[in-house]
């Protein structure tokens, strides 16, 4: 639990750093993008360590298994697809439960 909170604290620092770099606009754009990318990675690792349950989040579970956990490095690219897939999966599973229950 402490490790998950630590990852979220570091993610918050990187996120604040990305916003500060963006507001100053004195740095290279790549510095802002890299800082934001690292911040998103730490947010995702904090989520995996603290909140993730494979039964509640089948889309994330499928993504992690199909990419052999290398997908954690590419998660900022796939966030929109994971969010849309998660919404559709929950809708589909809820409709299956309603059909099974009558």
List keywords for this structure.
elongated; mainly alpha; 102 residues
Question: Can you give me a brief rundown of this structure?
Answer:
The chain is an all-alpha fold and 102 residues long.
The poorly predicted ranges are none
Number of strands: 0
Structural class: mainly alpha
Measured by DSSP, the beta-strand proportion falls in under 5%
What Rg is obtained from the alpha carbons, in whole angstroms? 17 Å
Shape: elongated
Report the end-to-end length measured between terminal Cα atoms: 40 Å
For the sheet with most strands, the description reads: none
SSE arrangement, N to C: HHHH
User: What fraction, in percent, of the residue positions are helical?
Assistant: over 70%
- The average pLDDT value, as a whole number, equals 85
Number of helices: 4
Walk me through this protein's architecture.
With 102 residues, the chain is mostly helical. The protein is built from 4 helices and no strands. The protein has helices spanning 2-24, 29-50, 58-66, 75-101. It is elongated and about 60 Å long.
